[in-house]
Amino acid sequence: MQVIEEKVKVYQAKDGTKFKDRYECEKHEKGIPYGNYYAKLSNLKEFEVTENHLKLIKRNQIEWVFFRDDYNAGRFYQDCKRPYGNSDWVGDIAEILGIEADCHSEDDFEDKWFSESLEYFLVCHHIDMRIVMEILCQNLSIRKGKYKRDSIYGGEWVYVGS
Questions:
Q1: Strand runs (DSSP E) across 26-132, as ranges?
Q2: 52 and 36 share one domain
């Protein structure tokens, strides 16, 4: 048997990344704005904790997991699929923050979902928890207001006021 010509479709995401599978490309493209937001967070020296962040902390599902071996005394764990208790974690964030879905089916008003911009707002609040939890652990308390650090490389977050 001889392959004379093999054509393979290649899909290119907005950031130039190439995929052989269309759905993987779409999934990657949907994640680009969130990756950019996460990268921006990594370089912040100032962060404002809001009432929304405090509400999310209260519902954050953190457990202590322990696997018995010579090098493991346990660790904190957050289920990445259920960070606030349910598998619809974006819906959980909306519920916690008191936000309703802003899109619905014309035929069925019970069939609701979030617009791209509202979903982005909700997901970014979850991504913010990376900094919020760092502030909480470093200070052993947290409150609404501005926090600063001297360095993006492990600098300690200090409360500077509201």
A1: 46-49, 62-65, 75-78, 103-104, 112-113
A2: no
